[in-house]
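Our preliminary data section would be incomplete without showing what the modeling component actually yields. Below, a chain of 244 amino acids is followed by its predicted structure, encoded as tokens that our downstream tools consume directly.
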Amino acid sequence: MTIIRDVRAQLRRRLLISYRVDPEVASSLLPEGFRPQLVGGSALAGVCVLGLESIRPKWMPRRWGLRSENAAHRIAVEWDGPDGVERGVFIIGRHSSAWHPVLFGGRLFPGVHRKARFRIQESGDRYAVTMQAGEHSLDADVEVSGDWSSGVFESLDAASDFYRAGRIGWSRGRDGRSVEPVALETDAWKVEAAHLHHLRSSFFDALPEGSAVFDSVVVMRDLPLVLSDAGRRHEAGSLSPAGP
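Predicted structure:
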């Protein structure tokens, strides 16, 4: 099977919802070889909700592209690469509304996904998102506001730099033990501060009481993206953490 190593898409909307997490709890969620990246003494984890359209290999015309809603639960991590400490995110699980990432993710192109149902309500600068996938659920109501509030990032620019540096996302392969990297890149990076009206995450709510506290949320909109097999260009190919 031919592997599609670069997938292009247009980002309609991306919500980056972050929690401050107890470092020991975060460590318990990671495979060997990764450790939480600490900011202000806390691990940073969260949910990335993406609405994508025009999803296609780079050689395919944009008008033939597909569309999907997606959510990824993730933890900011560090690992020891050949040139020293490197940073990115470990993705605990990916969910999608579409059939193509569920069937072909981790096979035809990188990134294993699970099927989920999404309901999205968009009204101007406000986004209400619900996701249901078996026992996993998410319910978030976010509004772009321009007002910044965070317990770890002193400014929106600091948060933007942090998220941009975490472009490489590791996740388990289809065998459940190996891990594979995917890079998310754009040449038009821009984030906007947002206000949270409501949040419920079955994943974070199930962690030990008080170990995961909402920190902040940013929104990205209307940007071109490239999702690539980071293993082809990234020198972390020697990193092969195995699950417990």
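The longest helix spans residues 156-165. The longest strand covers residues 212-229. Preliminary results of this kind motivate Aim 1 of the renewal.
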